[in-house]
Specification:
Mean pLDDT: 80
Strand order of the largest sheet: 1-2-5-4-3-12
Distance between the termini: 55 Å
Number of domains: 2
Strand content: 25-35%
Shape: globular
CATH architecture of the largest domain: Beta Barrel
Largest sheet: 6 strands, antiparallel, barrel
């Protein structure tokens, strides 16, 4: 009977010993172990991602010629649309430079773009992260903004040699200064606890009392640019509901995030030219 109880409690005893040893280890040893584990795990995540890309490649090879012709036509339409948008962007940049020179406004910090594939996603109620297949080998920095075609994805919170961890905009620990599109007053955005299979949501705080939601007209939130990390004008989400706060001075709202956020396969990391502007 005693031996049976001993064998039943042995896992808890081993766990207690491991926890006690971990508590008494020096800080530099703990840091070395964490970094080593992260670097050893990175090739596994990257390999799985490369295998997934290879499977997609061979799956596309099985498409018929008619499917390829149709896809080529759609791609040609998109390229034409992007070409027009690119020309408009060049014109807007010139106008912005003229206004900055007239008003003597300092330009926004410049970024260089680095496109990266998503290797792994980690969606839980406590945090939401993804791992991308680039790290220090491409000059990625902690705190760099991460975006995609739908707007803000998150920011880099951990950089390894070949991979990096990105905290998603839906994570409870993510905070950002935003504005309502067309309104310059700053609002605080924060991620919230999101169930794994539910659409991603966030919280908007300090919304002015005169802001109301109109049926059929989306109220878009975009980055304000006040933090100096995220450029202004990037899409964040849409206000889905507004409620009065306890102090009666502001409103609090629910923010609907882009549903493609949980399915994105490729992101763009904005690496500032001046790294000293980065902060978490």
């Amino acid at each position: 009977m005693l031996s049976s109880r001993f064998f039943q409690s042995r896992p808890f005893l081993v766990l207690g010993i491991v926890a006690a040893v971990w508590l008494i280890l020096p800080v530099f040893v703990k840091r070395f172990i964490r970094v080593s584990f992260f670097e050893l795990q990175a090739p596994v995540d990257s390999s799985i991602s490369y295998v997934r890309d290879l499977q997609d490649y061979w799956a596309l090879r099985t498409r018929t010629k008619n499917d390829l012709i149709s896809a080529g036509r759609d791609l040609a339409r998109l390229n034409a649309s992007y070409e027009v948008t690119l020309q408009q962007n060049v014109s807007l940049r010139r106008d912005l430079e003229k206004l900055e020179s007239i008003l003597k406004v300092p330009p926004f910090p410049e970024h260089r773009s680095e496109v990266a594939r998503v290797a792994r996603r980690d969606f839980t109620g406590w945090w939401q992260r993804m791992t991308i297949r680039k790290g220090r080998n491409y000059g990625l920095l902690v705190g760099s903004p991460v975006i995609f075609t739908g707007g803000v994805v998150g920011r880099v919170v951990k950089v390894g040699l070949y991979t990096s961890d990105v905290e998603l905009i839906s994570s409870p620990g993510f905070r950002l200064s935003v504005v309502i599109d067309g309104d310059g007053r700053p609002i605080t955005y924060q991620g919230s606890e999101n169930p794994s299979l539910a659409p991603a949501r966030g919280i908007a705080e300090y919304v002015p009392l005169d802001i109301t939601l109109k049926a059929g007209t989306p109220t878009r939130l975009v980055t304000s640019g006040l933090s100096g990390i995220f450029p202004a004008g990037l899409a964040v989400g849409e206000l889905g509901r507004l409620d009065g706060s306890n102090d009666g001075l502001f409103k609090t709202g629910e923010v609907k995030l882009d549903p493609r956020l949980s399915e994105v396969t490729e992101v763009t990391v904005l690496i500032p030219v001046k790294p000293e502007n980065l902060s978490l």
